[in-house]
Description:
By secondary structure, this protein is of the alpha/beta class.
Amino acid sequence: MPYARTDDRVKIYYEEHGGGTPLVLAYGIGGNADMWNVNVKALAERHRVVLWEPRGHARSDSPEDPARYSFARWVGDLRDVLDHLGLRRAHVGGLSLGGGIATRFTLRFPARVRSLLVTNSSSAAGLPLSVENIVMRARSIQVTLAEGMDAMAEFAMTANPNVAERLKLNPGARDEFYAYYRRLAPVGYANSLRALLAMDHITAELGRIRAPVLLLGGDRDPSLEPMRVMHRKIRGSRLHVLSPASHFANRDQPEAWNRAALDFLARCDRRTARRTG
């Protein structure tokens, strides 16, 4: 399997598909690259698609020290994947946590970003978490470390509104969620949750983003309102709401998600070609 190595010697899993302008995506917290399987074929027809898994997730390393996890570390992971692949600039994005990482990368390394594509992400907006979310995430850490990943999957399906809404739309996704959590190392997931709870609040900085921005949301997703905040903060950003769609909008509405993403990326690439031509 292909890996990039970070500046603190963590192995980061990635995979590549297709050819064209590079598009680099990460999934939500606890997710993995396979969660893009309903999108990758369409995307790869026009783009060099790089799917990667941040530290603490699936096939990437999961350091035991919680201090080695933060949004700044995850931004560094993304930078190191791009450097490993020799990509000076790319379209960057992701779902949920992946969108939060890509947004912070855009703020830190604006010259390396062709465009920013954020799907169903409250962490990208950088607002403080609600008390209910903090309690749910703290309990998730306890369940993960004390009872294991099957118990965590069961807890998420009842206590996490992001997961519960997906199941309302597709009850058959239960097996998908068990598989999703079983691929995680408990320490990696717990430490990732700790980093999410300690995230930096970047809302006031969003107005500095000058790259083209597409925000893709689901009408039944709790993160839709934070994404509306992003839309108001980032001048010229586009917000496209899919329906019916949960926090996992790319899986609930794959064809509509693919169409919106590809149309946006094509406009960005045409604009770049006109400037450089």
